[in-house]
TrEMBL record:
<dbReference type="Pfam" id="PF19664">
    <property type="entry name" value="DUF6167"/>
</dbReference>
<dbReference type="InterPro" id="IPR046165">
    <property type="entry name" value="DUF6167"/>
</dbReference>
<protein>
    <recommendedName>
        <fullName>YtxH domain-containing protein</fullName>
    </recommendedName>
</protein>
Length: 79
């Protein structure tokens, strides 16, 4: 009875290890690396958009606080 129990435990551990190794192998395959790179690029793009939105919001707050006319400052901007 003990031998059968240990055999079943060994089989379960083996199946678990093989499935974990297959998942790791898929992550390091070219397709998995490409998906990881796409996720990273998307996160960076999202972060940049949030920073730009925050900068624009803060600039508006500062212009309102200082009483600067936005239409006049846009005409003077020669960039």
């Amino acid at each position: 009875m003990k031998r059968i129990l240990w055999l079943i435990v060994g089989i379960l551990v083996g199946v678990y290890a093989v499935t974990r190794l297959k998942k790791r192998a898929q992550q390091f395959a070219p397709e998995g690396l490409q998906q990881s790179a796409e996720k990273m690029a998307s996160a960076i793009r999202h972060f940049g958009d949030e920073v730009r939105a925050g900068m624009a919001e803060r600039e508006t707050e500062l212009r309102d606080a200082l009483g600067i006319d936005t239409a006049a400052s846009e005409r003077e901007d020669y960039r």
